[in-house]
Amino acid sequence: MDALRQVGLLNPDNLLWAISIAILLAIYLRSRSRPTLEVSSLLLFDEAPAPAARVRHLRIDPLFWLEAAILGAIALALAGLYLRTAPAAAQGKTRALVFDLAAGMDAREGGGTRLDLAKKNALGIIDAAPERDRFILIGYALEAEMIHSETANHDSLRKAISEMRASAVAHRPAAQSAALMRARAAGEVDLFADRRPSDSILADAGLSARLHFHQAGSPAENLAIVSLDPGIPNISRGHAALKNFGRKPRVCELAIDGAGKTVFDRSLILAPGEQAMVPFGPLTSGGLVHARLVSPDALAADNERYTYAPMDVAANVIVLSPDAVVRDDIARVLLAVNSNFIITAADPAKFTAIDEYSLAVMHDCYIPSVKARAILLVFPPASVSAVADLRITGTIPAAQLTGQGRPNANTTPTFLGPTRRINVPGWMTVKASGAVPGMHEMIPMVAVGSLPSGNLGLLSFDIRDHLLLDPDRLDALVATVELIRELTAPTQLQIVSTGAFLAIPAPRDARIVTPDGSSIPASRDKWGRLRIRPLQAGHYSVESISQKVDIYANYYDAAESDLSGYSVPSATMAAKYTTAVDSISGPKQLRPVSMLLILLALLAMIVESALLLRNARRWGLRHV
Question: Does residue 94 contact residue 187 with C-beta atoms inside 8 Å?
Fold first, then answer.
């Protein structure tokens, strides 16, 4: 019973060959309906019609069954009948080891982490397995990753397992489902995670193999820094948001450093599940602001957070637009972002570029002679197509700014006016997309990119008629402010979220120093940029001969940081769950049986031939 699991057909369309059995049945009906009877006659030379007897029921003989068996076997062979069987003992079993590598697996558990506990259990499975057994090693967090392909080299597997590390990112359900899909080729699947997969993920994965779930760790107390706002130096106070995910009151010590010195250090008490907003400052100067929880807890990745306070430095900004009202609106937004901006507004038809600017904002115009470290193009004209592979392909009368690509955007689309169709080059990142009313097409609305020559931002929609000041279209203003802040941020210091892709312009190849002190070489792409994706929280340093860029990666995810939001199943519940997932047992190998069917057909033909020869000797050739 364990050998034969399931019968299936590779190409069911070939079952049409089974119609030949119906044809055989029709032939027998025809041949048996009017049999000829021989009778004696005294008329030697006269022809007389032979009497006929009509047969109402089909009389079949062994020859019919043999011929039907031959046709049926050939039809099934052509359709590709196969059996799902367990692998031969000499080959061994194939087993998939699937690991959750998200931030929760880096939580402290006993003398190590949850991932250390999972590794120990996996190594025990490998040690207990026969040498001929084969294993597949798969991990997932943001995406599913094949860590080690199928192999029977257990030493290589042990090395790969020991080198696995958890990332400071939240796992995506789609990545977990994709990892289980990759494990479908194995006869058994072992899942190591701190939370059980949902029924929907198991259904999406479509597992037919037996699944064993190994829960790593138990509920734990955890504190996290949710957000950090530096405020405005010498004007407004900053705020740090803390959250207690535990089920007990917790005492913690929060320390905040600004401009290299401590500006806040105090012990706080947080009730179970409480999120508190802690004020500090105002800061006396701008620069990097670092908040940290001094008290240890289960997860260290969400105990630190970085932000940047704007420096009190004047910067020259030029605003160009053929519309005077638009120039005024953009100037107001720029001053709201940074009150130290020195703004010059002009009509592009009357402007002559002389100075160099920190930021140039061009609405419905493009002047290539303007020298600026960063450029923001708003509703750009067709003449901008000559700039770094940007191409304007047309204009649509209206568009809807959606929340796609912007986690803090409203779920309701924002209706905007005329919008350019733009082919965004590969060196730019689309920050927000929009939809064309009445169509399913998505077009880029907000994009940003960096090249060695400077930063470039893009707003594809028109902002006439006070669009940026319209309270009913607030998402357009938020997207504009975020883009301006990104363009005017210091190029040698970047603060990002873990898992985000970065493109840093560089004059030559460099090396990246990670938070744990290791060094990784980085090569430039065809646009002269270094592509980086921080997966650990903390300080990264991109170092080359001529420059150094500091990157600070923040991690926080409410679901992943909540280490007490699930319960370990009781013995009864665990047994029911194990029985449920173990019952999803299925094939280990597909074995076609076409050759066996052909051999059976040949054997039936030999038996039929033997019967025909016997009848020929007994009754004569006329009756065969």
Answer: yes
